[in-house]
Amino acid sequence: MENFKADNYKYGFSYPEKPAYKLEKGLNEDTVKGISRIKNEPLWMLSYRLRAYKTFLSKKLPLWGADLSGLNFNDLYYYLKPSQSNADTWQSLPKDIKETYDRIGIPDAEQRYLAGVKAQYDSEIVYGSLLAELKKKGVIFLSMEEGLRKHPKIVREYFGKAIPASDNKFSALNSAVWSGGSFIYIPKNVKVELPLQAYFRINAKKMGQFERTLIIADEGSFVSYIEGCTAPIYSQDSLHAAVVEIFVKKNARVRYSTVQNWSRNVYNLVTKRAFVYEDAVMEWVDGNLGSKITMKYPSVYLMEKGARGVILSMALAGKNQFLDAGGKAVHLAENTSSQIISKSISKNGGGSNYRGLVKVCANAKNCKSSVVCDGLILDKKSYTNTFPVMDVAGKNAQVAHEASVGRVDEEQLFYLTSRGISEQEAVNMLVNGFIEPIAKEFPMEYALELNSLIALEMEGGVNA
Fold it and tell me: Taking a C-beta distance cutoff of 8 angstroms, is the pair 110, 208 a contact?
């Protein structure tokens, strides 16, 4: 086992690769066909993949946001099957995979406060569980491949409907080479009180991970889904380009929480979107600490009257990091409401952007939207920007936006240090207070983990 320590990143360890199967490096039509063949997919999915690959080739890299010119799509591996996949007990996993998740803490979390778990290692789900009582209620929590195999009609009805391959270059890439991810269906009026969790781990060098997640919450249901991700520290870059599609039916509620903690050699380029129907609620809670570059804008499309969307986003950018994150709310029906709260922290030369959109369509009357984005800069080398877009055509809309950028309050810092608290501890306290509106929305154990990770990131985080 290799072990690294860099920038206080505690998940930077790796194990030697022992794949059962690994496609040749590079991206071409044979790569796409090979992934579909390995998975024994129906013809319609292969056709979908091939159309998406052509779309990917036709689209250019975005010229706004982060500099993606360093991405070499032909210098990545697009599919690596671990030595074992989809075990139903931790004990049956290979030793290196089991030790990886033991060190991350997933088995302990599963036993104490999770209703179900999916664990992905490189390109495939390697472990899955769901409480028996939820299975009896009709809850479905499978890998995306299992969902396609066991529930083909549902998958075909919803797959690519919220995020078509043509949406952007990276949704097209994911649609062409997707592997792994979660398929979730919550039946009518079923409330899943404990969270479901998926954990994504990249282990191999120059790896591309392209999970696909589809969540359908039927009328009157509720589910909380938590996503975590880490990777080893390598000198070569990896790519994570996921797609998440969520459908929140009438009077349902979905909360999707992310603790993104990729290592500093990962491009994290993700598309996440929810369609929210009558009187339903969608909540995105997004914590971004890791990666080399992140571009991610969870969005809510408020499809029918009374729909509500909440996007809470936190980003901490350190040395050699650029995080371009935010949220989008599109009001397509009357009496819909949205709230976007974004908090960013920049230190040691790191950069962060808030990029957001609020769109109120002409037929969407009496809509309300509030956007608040705050940036905290901890030294003279770091920076932050806000790029809000407001497009309001509906009548009687109430749309508000406020933004602030500042540094650690010197008076508060002096007060705390004069009480015997070290400067580092004082800064940590002020930073925790700054992000508290976001952190408190995570389940308790994850909020504690988030605060712990931030404390590690903050060590030596204040410079003149």
Answer: no
CA–CA dist 303, 436 (Å, integer):
31
The secondary structure of the chain in percent helix, strand, coil, rounded to multiples of 5, reads 25, 35, 40
Within a domain: 135? yes
Tell me the C-alpha distance between 192 and 113, whole Å. Answer: 12
pLDDT of residue 87 exceeding 70: no
With respect to residue 256, please indicate whether it lies within any of the assigned structural domains.
yes
Q: Which residues of 177-197 are buried (b: 16+ CB within 10 A; e: fewer)?
A: bbbbbbbbbbbeebebeebbb
C-alpha closest to that of 77 among 185, 193, 234, 187: 234
Residues 159/160/161/165 CA torsion (nearest 10 deg): -170
Residue type, 126: V
Range of the domain at 199: 21-296
Using one digit for the tens of pLDDT, what is the confidence trace for 426-452? 777 777 777 777 777 776 666 666 766
* Structural domains in the chain (count): 1
